[in-house]
Each structure stands twice: as C-alpha cells, then as structure tokens.
Amino acid sequence: MEPQSALHRLAWGLGEISESTGLSLAFLRNEVRAGRLPVRKFGRRVLVRDEDLRAYLDRGSGSAERIGREAEDRRS
User: What is the reported pTM?
Assistant: First the structure.
C-alpha cells in the first residue's frame, strides 16, 4: 500500500469557500438558505461536503443561466 501524499479534504467552512472562490459570505449564506448549496451542521459549525461543493461549482447557482435567458428574451 502506497502512503497517501495529501489527505483529501472532506468538508469546507463557508469562510474557507469564500476565501478560495471569491464568493462573498453573504452570497454563500443566501445560497444555503435557498437550498442551492447543501450544508451539514455540527453544533454551530456549518460545513459543506467537498463533493457537494464541487457539484455546486459545476452547475453554478442558476443565475447565469437565468441572466442568459433574460438577455436572449430582450433581443427577441
């Protein structure tokens, strides 16, 4: 068995996500409230599982798609 060179990150705090993505804490909290970014609570600590964060970042919040549709509607 080979030694693992780096541990795989299991979960992230909202502050860590904000720092690494540039998304504001207020935006992330709104995404959590809206149910678009799933979290797990451990006492007062709010964590986002790594796989949930990756899925969220892959699909986005949906606002980019909505903005694109609105722009296309205005052109019509």
Answer: 0.71
